[in-house]
Design brief:
Length: 238
């Protein structure tokens, strides 16, 4: 059971209410939430928000939804630089939370539901297209992932401040070769599985910024209307 689920159960117990009763008051589907808890699946932020109102706790109580990302300046940099980095990190956190609460942020469940309903085909793709990246399948000689199209609001585009597919290549090729090899190997797995969800961590330097964050990644092989095959990648901070 993940941390959010444990807190929900603990709050229900302490308030003397059953989970089904709280769900009814919050307008949340009990069967869906109960299945998410039992299967250790991610609980959508909108569900947590609805429950928090009934359970009389602030949304911040469920700290698992806080983005675990920090951007640190070099040692010896000015205090102003450090504060600017911290402000940027907090702005990214606030942006993600605001988009999720407004229903605009695409989460892991939404991507998995789309893959299932569209049978891994790029149909009815508009709602996802700006928030996912598409890569060419990894060939035997590839030493780095080759992007076909990067979503303008995808995690990689926003947090690495990527301007184009070529810029992505120039940025990523400077990362630790061991990290690149691991990611390429994950892309190669898409030849054998319908999708893969994993929690990852990254620790890289881009210019003078030290970027460290944890994220949840969905990868899946997809096909467009012409039969061209790509690897879809969606990531969100955790």
């Amino acid at each position: 059971m993940n941390g959010v689920a444990e807190k929900i159960k603990r709050l229900c117990d302490s308030s003397g209410q059953s989970l089904s009763s709280v769900c009814k008051q919050a307008g949340v589907n009990y069967k869906t939430l109960n299945a998410q808890i039992k299967r250790n699946r991610e609980i959508p932020i909108r569900t947590v928000d609805q429950l928090s109102r009934v359970l009389n706790v602030p949304l911040s109580y469920f700290s698992d939804y806080s983005a675990a990302m920090t951007i640190q300046s070099d040692e010896g940099r000015s205090i102003l630089h450090q504060r600017a980095s911290q402000a940027y990190t907090e702005a990214l956190r606030s942006e993600q939370m605001a988009m999720m609460r407004a229903g605009f942020e695409v989460g892991t469940d939404e991507v998995l539901d789309w893959l299932a309903t569209q049978n891994n085909r790029l149909h009815n793709f508009d709602a996802l297209s700006d928030r996912v990246d598409l890569f060419f399948p990894v060939a035997g000689t590839d030493r780095i992932m080759r992007p076909y199209r990067l979503g303008r609001n995808s995690l990689a585009t926003r947090h690495f401040q990527i301007e184009s597919e070529d810029h992505f290549m120039r940025t990523v090729e400077k990362f630790d070769p061991a990290l690149i090899d691991r990611v390429v190997a994950s892309h190669a797995e898409m030849e054998r599985v319908p999708y893969k969800v994993s929690d990852e961590a990254i620790d890289v330097w881009i210019g003078s910024a030290h970027i460290q964050h944890r994220y949840r990644r969905v990868m899946a092989p997809v096909t467009d209307q012409n039969g061209n095959r790509y690897t879809l990648v969606h990531a969100k901070l955790i």
